[in-house]
Each structure stands twice: as C-alpha cells, then as structure tokens.
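Limitations

Structures in this collection are predictions, not experimental determinations, and the ligand pose is part of the prediction. Treat each record accordingly. The example that follows, with 2-succinylbenzoate as the small molecule, is included so readers can see exactly what is and is not provided: the inputs are given verbatim, and the output is the predicted complex.
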Amino acid sequence: MTPAAVDLPAIELREVALPLVRPFRTSFGEERDKRAILVRAIGDDTEGWGECVASVEPRYSEEWLGGAWLALERLIAPSVLAGAVKRPGQALEGVQWIRGHRMAKAAMEAAVLDAWLRAGGLTLSEHLGGVRDRVPCGVSVGIAPTIEAMLEEIRSYLAKGYRRIKLKIEPGRDLAVVRAVREALPDTPVSVDANGAYTPADTPLFEALDELGLMMIEQPLDVEDLTDHAALQARLRTTICLDESIRSSRDAEAAIRLGACRVINIKPGRVGGILESKRVHDVALQAGVPVWIGGMLETGVGRAANLALASMPGVTLPGDTSASDRYFPEDLTKPFVLDPDGTMAVPRGPGIGVAPLPSRLEACTARRTTVTSP
Ligand code: OSB
Ligand code: MG
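Predicted complex:
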C-alpha cells in the first residue's frame, strides 16, 4: 500500500541537550553532552520526527549545529512547507539546489518520511525492504585516559553482549593500546577508527596494525584522500572501512571502483538522508561490498531510523547502534535495550516506531522555533 499525500502545515525545530554517561573522545576532540536538533513535521492528523546529527563544532565534517539550525529554519523548512508530500523521495526535491548541508537535509527528510509512513501505517523498515527484525550490535569506545580504564569499559560492554568493539585511535594512542586490547581479549572482534587523523606517511603504523587481526580499520586517512586510501588498502590485508569519505552513493561507487575500501559505514546524516543511505547500500550490495550502519551518538529518535536501516539485506556486519544506556542516563525516547545475544529489535511501530517522551523532550529542550507556511 502506498500512503496518500500528507499536508504539513508546520515544522518545529528544537535544539536538545542530554548528558552523556561518559565523555566521548575521538581524534578530533571530546564531547561531554549530546546536542542535536530535532525536526518535527506537523501534519493535520500525523507528525514525524527526524534528528540532525551535526555536532556543535565542524570537526567531523563541515556541518555544525548552529549552521544546520539556520539552514533548516531559513531554507529547508520553508521549501518543504510549500507543497504536500506525495512520494517519500519528494521531501528534498525543493532543496536540491542547496549545496551540501546534508545532515540538515537528512533530518528534514527523516521527519517527513516518518510522518508519511505513520499516516499510511507502514514501518520504515518495511519501506526500506528490511529483511530482519533484530540486528547485531557493536559498540564504539572513545579514547580513554589509560589502557586499564579502556579495558574495564570494554569488559562491561562484552558482558552485556556487544558483538564487536570499535576502538577510537589517534596519533600517539594507537598501536600500544590496540595491542594491549588484542592481548587481553584475543577472541573479541575488534576494529579501530582513526577519524582521518593519519597521513600516508603513517603507513608503517598501519602495517604494524595489520599484524593484529583487526576486523577493519575505519577512515585512517583524510576525508578527501580516496586515492591514498586505495594505495593503503593495496598494502594491507586488513579491510579498510570508509566513513567520512563517503558522502553520497556516487562517492561509494568511486571508492569501490578505486579499491579505496572493502567495507562502508553508512550514516544517513553524512550522506544526506535515509533514501540516499539506501542507494549507498544498493551500490555496495551490487558490488559485493558489505556495509554496516554507523552512529553519531544519536538520541533514540535517530537511532530508531538507524535500526530500520540496519534491517536492509546488505547490512551484514554489526553496527555502532548501541543501547540507550551506552550513551545516556536517560534517553529522549523509551530506552533501546540490548538483548543478551548482542542484538537489538528493529522498531515495530509505523514510521520510525518511536517518538520523544513529552516530559523528556521538555526537560532537554534548549531552544525551539516553529516555521509555518507563509
Ligand atoms: O566516526 O563513527 C564515528 C560518533 C560521533 C562522530 C563520529 C563517529 C562516532 C562514533 C560513535 O564512532 C558511534 C555511535 O555509537 O553512535
Ligand atoms: Mg567513524
């Protein structure tokens, strides 16, 4: 069944702030609390939610929360309000002319898609051709002050059932840390994520990491260095996974053709939407390249959509979609819980299947505005 057109007379934006259970440190800095923009598409008899993953500072990519807010308020929301949404892909048609701003566009598309699917009683997973109702989960471990602290954190995740541990690395905190983890936990699937902190001059480091039997090395080099990634991949047995470098399905095609990676981490914010994520998935599936769904420390709103994406057939590796208690003392939605077998349920309700709890939403809102049709 195809849902009918929905009218969306108003769009609400909220900046929310939630404390994290522990600071999250990567090669580009440390986050102590999670800030996000929530987009709420308000229809006459339906509504939908999307989460913008732009961080407070433009370190992961060019996008940042303050800029995304303005792009949503001044450009993206007014354009969406101008027409009824008759097809899911249509939400972003009017904003194609805007270069970049993928995370802002993705949040708007998610909200509109959620409203549209809810109106038609369809789940996001069904809409995406999902083939499973539970997905295997891994966890991304921030850089810790000491190896002991890191091992303690990892052991607590393994006790909960997580199926893969991803270690953040940066120059100076890499080989010794990874070696210590491999020695302490030789049977645990481990990957590393450099967030682009290295250059081709660090090839000897990657050759040393290559001896450690890692599942993959994520984004070792700069976001713009596809050809350098290809040269590095040619020297390593370990799979290179690209994150920051893949901003669209075209990037995915180019990276695969060049041999710049053998796995892709899909994040809807980074590629400009849930539907573009599906296209990245399709390109990779066609080429026989496994994918997994990454994360940006999303609240339950963004994570619900990520779990639906993880139900697609080509998503064959555990993702970074962890349970609510890995991130927040209290999530914005009903908490997502990891089963002891290391899987999480794909939400079953229409649309993304969850919504922010009203009292949590009020408690976490730092600013809000409503954009209405002119
Ligand atoms: O590189 O995958 C990354 C978080 C914020 C920004 C970038 C990344 C991450 C993570 C955490 O690794 C993934 C998650 O648990 O949401
Ligand atoms: Mg990454």
